[in-house]
Amino acid sequence: MALFDKVSGFAKNASDKTAVMFETAKLNSKISAQEKAIAALTLRLGEYYLAQCDAGTLAVEGEAAEICGEIAACRQNIVSLQAEIEAVRAARDFDESDTGVKFCPECGEALASEARFCPRCGTKQE
Ligand SMILES: [Zn+2]
Hints:
Bound molecules: zinc ion
Number of strands: 2
Number of domains: 3
């Protein structure tokens, strides 16, 4: 094979590879979008069943009943944790209006009250 043929053969081969990689990346991106859609729909499906479970309009059993029970336990934990917050604040006569400081709920970093992102972990602040 002449050198020219070798070189043009290599170039064709390389551009074919690039084209295949490009097509593959595009298609993988579409697959990823579909997987995200499935995850969002799965969440909606769960919320649909949970709402029916809460309303008592659906007889759940087996694993679904276990999951509904775990969610109920989590909700109870939230109520207890909110009561703890109230207790901690009440015990120290806390007034958050003029402290100028808040804490990142994700990592506990002390932040200026106007901070919009945590500089330590990057979590968006409310
Ligand atoms: Zn943080």
